[in-house]
Design brief:
Number of strands: 7
Number of helices: 3
Strand content: 15-25%
Shape: elongated
Largest sheet: 5 strands, mixed
Helix content: 25-40%
């Protein structure tokens, strides 16, 4: 067999990892969301240095891919100031809804990378957040298979260390 067809493993070669998908939606962020991006970048830089010290080429490739992603997210971030009023639901608002079964849930509408529904942080692109946008207390919005009534809207604090 010709050597041209044999691919010998080479510990010094690491295949380039494909970049993470950045999506096409606006990268709206709260001050907290921007802080989280900065924190992620700092942690990745530390991990990259540790991988270099250990000469871990696979880890370096993975971390470099993640650094490209988070640097692009930081570069495209559009910081949105907290809403000026609590009359209607906006990006950054904290909204409490009451579901048909009586459960109350509170969500803050945030950017894509900051979203964590289990922690009450809802992406502005989610169906519930889109349905609530521009609505007022008393309005009913689709929430999954049921409906939910908006019972409270707050101007959320934009302290970078809080949800």
């Amino acid at each position: 067999m010709s050597v041209a067809f044999v691919k010998e493993p080479n510990d010094l070669q690491v295949e380039t990892l494909p970049d993470r998908d950045l999506g096409t939606d606006l990268n709206l962020v709260t001050a907290r969301g921007l802080h989280l991006i900065e924190t992620e970048l700092n942690e990745l830089e530390e991990r990259l240095e540790a991988a270099r010290t250990a000469d871990d080429r696979i880890a370096m490739a993975t971390i470099q891919r993640d650094l490209r992603y988070w640097n692009a997210r930081r570069a495209s971030a559009e910081l949105v100031a907290p809403p000026a009023d609590a009359d209607t639901v906006h990006f950054g608002s904290r909204v409490t809804v009451e579901r048909d079964d009586g459960r109350r849930q509170t969500f803050r509408i945030v950017g894509i990378d900051e979203a964590d529904p289990a922690q009450g942080l809802l992406s502005y692109l989610s169906p519930l957040a889109r349905g609530m946008a521009g609505k007022e207390v008393g309005d009913v919005v689709p929430a999954g298979h049921d409906d939910a009534e908006i019972v409270d809207i707050e101007m959320a604090s934009d302290d970078a260390s809080k949800a």
